[in-house]
Amino acid sequence: MKPTQKFRELLNGDELLISPGVYDAYSIRAVEQAGYKTACTTGAGVANARYGYPDVGIMGLSENLELCRVVARSVSIPVMADADTGYGNPSTVFEVARLFEETGVVGINLEDQLSPKRCGHMSGKDVIDRREMVKKIEAACDARRDDNFVILARTDAIAVEGIDAAVSRAQDYVRAGADIIFADAVHDAEQIKRLVDAVDVPVSVNMGFGIRQRPTTPLIPLSQLKKMGVRRVTLPRMLAAAAINAMQLALGDLKNAVSQGELHHRPDLLCSIDDIWDLMGYPEALARQGLYDQLDG
Questions:
Q1: DSSP bridge partners of 18
Q2: How far apart are CA 24 and CA 184, in angstroms?
Q3: Res 82: pLDDT
Q4: Cys bridge to 93: 139, 222, 223, 282, which one at CB 3.0-4.6 A?
Q5: Which of 222, 221, 266, 240 has its CA nearest to residue 30?
């Protein structure tokens, strides 16, 4: 079964889809190894971790496509991609959608922010005219070669125009062909329920951790989200935040050890080299090497 078809089946099933955000081969392999059925790239995570950029629209299309190719080919589970604002006008989006589809991801997020965009939980955002976003969605839908390739329409209008406008935009985006709706920086469960009730396509919700500034989305129990009709929950910052925290703990421990003139074995902080090899497929690679490096005769 093709990944796009697998994702459509998951999306149309009864299970609430939990989609951790990934930003490199380590993180996507870890998601698959942990048993998750799907994942998504995080634009902020990719810009931060791979290129050292803040998520303020600096990362370009080529960098994003490169990461998506790496992630999609590293696992067998379906991966959605964050295509930011689509990198241009509607005719540009047509070509961009095809480029992302060619990487092997199962769909893309397109957002209605004014370019250069910002992380959805930053202040100072602005949104484009809804008519332009409608055309972007239509272009992305027309561009796909696989009908199962998913177009997710994201609106950041809550922070700019309020919930009523965000709901109205979502309805327009569905009429334009969007397969999934996502309103970033929703304030509470009531706003999520309004969105779910207003559209007849799956709704995706972003759950974050440790946000210090408004607007933000509170952590809502998954059972409550499912009861409300939410189909998909993304956690774009979880793995990056966990990795940063773990690195800081390990580096702090190393610094203390160096000051004492010694090193400590810390399996509570560090996985083993065997764990890394298993995650990245070293045993399989060595088996192939042994098979093909043997000379007949």
A1: 233
A2: 23
A3: 96
A4: 139
A5: 240
Determine which helix (DSSP H) or strand (DSSP E) holds 286, and give its type and residue range. helix 282-292
**Residue 210: CB partners within 8 Å, gap ≥ 6?**
237, 241
CA–CA gap between residue 279 and residue 99 (Å, rounded): 28
**Can you give the pLDDT at residue 264?**
81
pTM: 0.92
The terminus-to-terminus CA distance of the chain in angstroms comes to 40
SS (H, E, C) 70-88: HHHHHCCCCEEEECCCCCC
Please tell me whether residue 233 adopts helix, strand or coil conformation.
strand
Please report, as a single letter, which amino acid is at residue 218: P
CATH number belonging to domain 3-236 = 3.20.20.60
279-288 average pLDDT score = 91
Side-chain-side CA neighbours of 99 within 13 Å: the count stands at: 17
- Dihedral (CA of 280, 78, 181, 145) sign: positive
Q: Which DSSP letter does residue 91 get? A: H
| Domain extents in the chain | 3-236, 244-292
Instruction: Give the DSSP H/E element, type plus range, for residue 14.
Output: none
Question: What DSSP line would sit under 101-145, residue for residue?
Answer: HHHT-SEEEEE-BPSSP--TTSSS--B--HHHHHHHHHHHHHH-S
Range 230-247 average pLDDT: 95
- Provide the 10 A C-beta neighbour count for residue 286: 11
What is the mean predicted confidence (pLDDT) over 9-23?
96
Q: Which two tokens stand for residue 67?
A: 């990461």
Looking at residue 294, what is its pLDDT?
Answer: 75
Q: What was the pLDDT predicted at 213?
A: 53
CB 10 within 8 A of CB 78: yes
Residue 78, token pair as written in the block: 């379906």
pLDDT for the residue numbered 140: 98
Indicate the DSSP class of residue 184. T
Q: What is the DSSP letter of 296?
A: P
Q: Give residue for tokens 């930011």.
A: 84
| Type of residue found at 233 | V
